[in-house]
Amino acid sequence: MYSQLLNGLMAYLSGSSIHNAFAARIPDDNGRKHDSVPPGSPIPLSIDSLAQALGDYSQAAQNHVVPLLLTVGQSDPRKLLEILGDPRVHASSWSEQLAKKVVEIFQHIASPENVDKLHLYGKTVVDAYNKAVEAAKAKLHDFYDYAREHPAEVGTVLAILLALGMLAVLAPYLLETLGWAATGPVKGSYAAWFQSTYGGYVPAGSLMAYLQHISMASI
């Protein structure tokens, strides 16, 4: 299985003209293979096959399947979260390194230069972004206004915050993996790193209030 998935990844990365070669190698959830996929459209994936591959999180999965999954996530983040939320994957194969890569994908999606492309990811992603923005305005209003006025200085921080907010809507379990606990950031985690790096902009209490606001609004 790993070699098949890796071959598809390599074909995909070699150029957009090979988009269909990648898609044809991965059956969808009905077992059908696709001979053609319009450029820019979501790539069909079998959740069963990837859940099985990621379930043991072996070295082979790290080397072969995880890069494939993250590549697909850049074009279809909803499919990425659907796969990672599968109990077979979530129960046994989550690692903080993989979680951080997912944050990077959503940081890219939420960056100012890409906001006008949000609609390409569908209503679910757009709604999550809007909820993150609303929460930032409500709970981080001073920083939000400052970041909008000084994107060169703190635009990256805002994009990360919006990415975390989107994940609080779409995949709240991911925040636990990253080290956000009810009592605050877990020592040595990504959450602790974020707080030590950007705490001058966003105090721990404000960040927790922001994430909790989103979680409550999403119930």
From TrEMBL:
Pfam families: Ifi-6-16. Keywords: Membrane, Transmembrane, Transmembrane helix. It is found in: Membrane. The chain crosses the membrane at residues 154-175, 190-211. InterPro entries: IFI6/IFI27-like, IFI6/IFI27-like_sf. GO terms for cellular component: membrane. It is a multi-pass membrane protein. Belongs to the IFI6/IFI27 family. This is Uncharacterized protein. The lineage of its organism: Eukaryota, Fungi, Dikarya, Ascomycota, Pezizomycotina.
